[in-house]
């Protein structure tokens, strides 16, 4: 009998400075120890300070995470690819057959001229809910005690 492949989730968004970074952090925080999680963007930018602040408010430190460009090796080895924004749908490489493709379309809280912590919190809470739901679907949710 062959060993089941570990769940590998790749979260993608445009700049990998907010939404996909939060999703990566939530999956690492709530996921079983055996899952593999990463995030990337089409045009990476440094983590935004409001992303760090919003996650710090709930006890998750993302300050050590770095923005990354999409890595095709990681992309092709993923079990699930989650695209967190609409614009990446058109520019992202085609997801091969056999890899689950999710499109979440979470509004970029940093898109306004002057981003607000309230908008980042709203995106954070929506992403948290969706990540937990995804982990539960794969029976990879590790409920905090």
Can you tell me about this structure?
This protein is α/β, with parallel strands linked by helices. It has one domain (8-137): Rossmann fold (3-Layer(aba) Sandwich). It has 5 helices and 4 strands. Strands 2-1-3-4 form a 4-stranded parallel sheet. Helix 1 (19-30) crosses helix 5 (117-137). The longest helix has 21 residues, at 117-137. The termini are far apart.
Total separate domains: 1
CATH 2nd-level architecture:
3-Layer(aba) Sandwich
Rg over C-alpha atoms, rounded to the nearest angstrom: 15 Å
Name the beta content range.
Answer: 5-15%
Find the count of extended strands (DSSP E, 2+ residues): 4
Give the helix proportion (percent range). Answer: 25-40%
Terminal CA distance reads: 34 Å
The CATH topology annotation reads as Rossmann fold
Quaternary: single chain
Summarize the structure.
The protein has five helices and four strands. With 145 residues, the chain is α/β, with parallel strands linked by helices. The protein has one domain (8-137): Response regulator (Rossmann fold), CATH 3.40.50.2300.
Using brief descriptors, characterize the structure shown.
145 residues, alpha/beta, Rossmann fold, four-stranded parallel β-sheet, 5 helices, 4 strands
Topology summary:
Blueprint: E1 8-13, H1 19-30, E2 36-41, H2 49-56, H3 72-77, E3 80-83, H4 86-91, E4 100-103, H5 117-137
Parallel strand pairs: 1-2, 1-3, 3-4
Helix pairs in contact: 1-5, 2-5
């Amino acid at each position: 009998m062959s060993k089941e492949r570990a769940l590998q989730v790749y979260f993608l968004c445009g700049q990998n400075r907010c939404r996909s970074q939060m999703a990566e952090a939530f999956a690492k925080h709530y996921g079983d120890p055996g899952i593999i999680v990463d995030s990337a963007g089409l045009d990476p930018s440094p983590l935004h300070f409001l992303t760090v602040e919003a996650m710090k408010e709930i006890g998750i430190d993302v300050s050590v995470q770095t923005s990354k460009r999409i890595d095709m090796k990681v992309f092709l080895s993923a079990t699930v690819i989650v695209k967190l924004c609409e614009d990446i749908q058109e520019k992202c490489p085609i997801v091969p057959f056999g890899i689950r493709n999710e499109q979440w379309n979470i509004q970029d809280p940093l898109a306004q001229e002057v981003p607000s912590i309230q908008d980042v919190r709203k995106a954070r809470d929506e992403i948290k809910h969706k990540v937990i739901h995804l982990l539960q679907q794969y029976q990879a949710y590790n409920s905090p005690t």
